[in-house]
Amino acid sequence: MNPKFAPKVMAYLLILRWTLSLIFFVMGAPKLFDANFGASADIYFASLRDDIILSPYTGFFNKVVIPNAFIFASLVKYAELAIAGAFFIGFPMRLAVFAATFLHINYICIASFPSLLYLNVLMIVCEWVCLAAVEASVNNTTPVAK
User: What residues make up the domain containing 46?
Assistant: First the structure.
């Protein structure tokens, strides 16, 4: 890779990382400030039961998630905000990317709309690209193969 393009690549990857941070913040902040969030999570999760596209996930969803809906709703709320903060400051990126990937895989399993499936896959790819960029900047290498 041409050394004069490396700063531009890193700048674009920083913009991508901050965009992901903004997406997670926009999704998590309303949940944080809504006093009633999670109160009717069991009803909401029960409505998603028919949208599960992977049959092995159905058993876990029905036996674990729905009975503990308030706990899982709270976990999602705080995880989204923690991931937003981690992507913004760039630390701890590995944990943030693994948590974000876990959330997106769960969102993929409950894909109500086919477009959401592709959006979640795109988000996972972007998160892993950001991780590679942060790892490369820590190791003082370029994130693109030479």
Answer: 25-138
Q: What is the pLDDT of residues 45-73, one digit of tens each?
A: 888 888 888 778 888 999 999 999 999 99
18 neighbors 88 (Cβ within 8 angstroms): yes
Q: Radius of gyration (Cα) for the chain, nearest Å? A: 17
Q: For the segment 4-52, what is each residue's pLDDT rounded down to a tens digit?
A: 657 888 889 999 999 999 999 999 999 998 888 888 888 888 888 888 8
Tell me if 65 is assigned to some domain: yes
83/92 Cα distance (integer angstroms): 9
Q: What is the pTM of this model?
A: 0.84
Structural domain tally of the chain? 1
CA gap 109, 133 in Å, rounded: 28
Q: Which amino acid type is present at position 124?
A: I
**Residue 39: φ, ψ to 5°:** -65, -35
